Amino acid sequence: MPQRLILVAKVKSPHLAATLRECIPAFLERGWVVTGEPGLVDAWELSGLPAESLRVDAELGAQEPPADLCLVLGGDGTLLYAARRVGLRGTPILGINLGSLGFLTAHPLSEARTAVETFLAGGLVADQRFMLEAELWRDGRLLTRHTVLNDAVLAKGALARIMDLRLAVGEQDAGPIKADGLIVSTPTGSTAYSLSAGGPILHPCLEAFVVAPICPHTLTLRPTVVPATIPITISLDDAEDAHLTLDGQVGHRVLPGDRVRLHMAKASITLLQRPGLDFFGLLQQKLHWGDR
C-alpha cells in the first residue's frame, strides 16, 4: 500500500508554486499518494507538476486511516488549521515556513528541499504538543466543542464597554474580573496572543496553561500559570458583544450567562523538527533574543 501525504498550504502565497517544485518530486518519485484541498489546484498546475499526481479531497482524507505525513506550506496560521484538520487524527506534521514569523513552521523556505530529504531519510525529531479542548455551554447545554493548539480567547467586539467575567480554576473561585477579555493559552500558544498581553513564555514540555487578562481594569491582575490538569471555567456575567475565538480562526458568539469550559485535551499532535533546533535557539532566531 503506498504511503500517503496530506498537503495543506497557504494558497495565496507567491512562493507556493516554487516550493511545490522543490518539495513534492521527492515524494512522487517514491510512489507517495498526495492529497490536497481543491484550492491547491491552481498552484499545483503553475508548479508544472503532473495534474494526475494530485488527489483532490476537500475532507483531506478524513474518512481514511491517518496519513503518513502532513506537509504544511505556509505560516503558523496554516499549521494551526492543519493541526485541527489532520494532526488530531495522528498524522505527524512537517511545516515549511512561507510566512513572516514561523514559530511552528520552523523550517525556513530556503531549506524546504533539505527538510523533505531529511524527513525521508528518517532524520527529523518528533516534538509532541498537547492541545486545549474548549466547550461553550448555554443553559446547561453544550453548544460547541473544539480542540485547538494555541489558545482560546473570550473578548469583546467593537464596542468599548468593559466585560464582567468570573474565573474558576478547578473548584477554586478566582474571583470576578473586569477586562477586555481573557486568553487561555497552551505552552505552544504562549508565544502568540498571550505574549502580546504580557504573558510569560512557557517551554513546550510543560503541562500548564497561561491565563492572561486583556487590558484588565485592575492593574494588579496579572497573567497566571496554572496546571493543565485542572479545568478552567470562564463565566460571562455582562458584555455588549462577546466572542469566543479559538486559535484565531474559529469564532462563536457568547451571551451573558454562558460558560466557557477549558481543559487539557486527550489528543496531542506531533511536529517534526530538524535536529539541533532547541527551544531557546528558536526564541533567539524568531524573537532575536540576545540582539542589541
TrEMBL record:
<keyword id="KW-0963">Cytoplasm</keyword>
<keyword id="KW-0520">NAD</keyword>
<feature type="binding site">
    <location>
        <position position="249"/>
    </location>
    <ligand>
        <name>NAD(+)</name>
    </ligand>
</feature>
<dbReference type="InterPro" id="IPR017438">
    <property type="entry name" value="ATP-NAD_kinase_N"/>
</dbReference>
<dbReference type="InterPro" id="IPR002504">
    <property type="entry name" value="NADK"/>
</dbReference>
<feature type="binding site">
    <location>
        <position position="161"/>
    </location>
    <ligand>
        <name>NAD(+)</name>
    </ligand>
</feature>
<feature type="binding site">
    <location>
        <begin position="76"/>
        <end position="77"/>
    </location>
    <ligand>
        <name>NAD(+)</name>
    </ligand>
</feature>
<feature type="binding site">
    <location>
        <begin position="150"/>
        <end position="151"/>
    </location>
    <ligand>
        <name>NAD(+)</name>
    </ligand>
</feature>
<keyword id="KW-0067">ATP-binding</keyword>
<feature type="active site" description="Proton acceptor">
    <location>
        <position position="76"/>
    </location>
</feature>
<protein>
    <recommendedName>
        <fullName>NAD kinase</fullName>
        <ecNumber>2.7.1.23</ecNumber>
    </recommendedName>
</protein>
<keyword id="KW-0808">Transferase</keyword>
<keyword id="KW-0521">NADP</keyword>
<feature type="binding site">
    <location>
        <position position="178"/>
    </location>
    <ligand>
        <name>NAD(+)</name>
    </ligand>
</feature>
<dbReference type="Pfam" id="PF01513">
    <property type="entry name" value="NAD_kinase"/>
</dbReference>
<dbReference type="InterPro" id="IPR016064">
    <property type="entry name" value="NAD/diacylglycerol_kinase_sf"/>
</dbReference>
<keyword id="KW-0547">Nucleotide-binding</keyword>
<feature type="binding site">
    <location>
        <position position="180"/>
    </location>
    <ligand>
        <name>NAD(+)</name>
    </ligand>
</feature>
<dbReference type="GO" id="GO:0016301">
    <property type="term" value="F:kinase activity"/>
</dbReference>
<comment type="similarity">
    <text>Belongs to the NAD kinase family.</text>
</comment>
<keyword id="KW-0418">Kinase</keyword>
<feature type="binding site">
    <location>
        <begin position="191"/>
        <end position="196"/>
    </location>
    <ligand>
        <name>NAD(+)</name>
    </ligand>
</feature>
<comment type="function">
    <text>Involved in the regulation of the intracellular balance of NAD and NADP, and is a key enzyme in the biosynthesis of NADP. Catalyzes specifically the phosphorylation on 2'-hydroxyl of the adenosine moiety of NAD to yield NADP.</text>
</comment>
<dbReference type="InterPro" id="IPR017437">
    <property type="entry name" value="ATP-NAD_kinase_PpnK-typ_C"/>
</dbReference>
<dbReference type="Pfam" id="PF20143">
    <property type="entry name" value="NAD_kinase_C"/>
</dbReference>
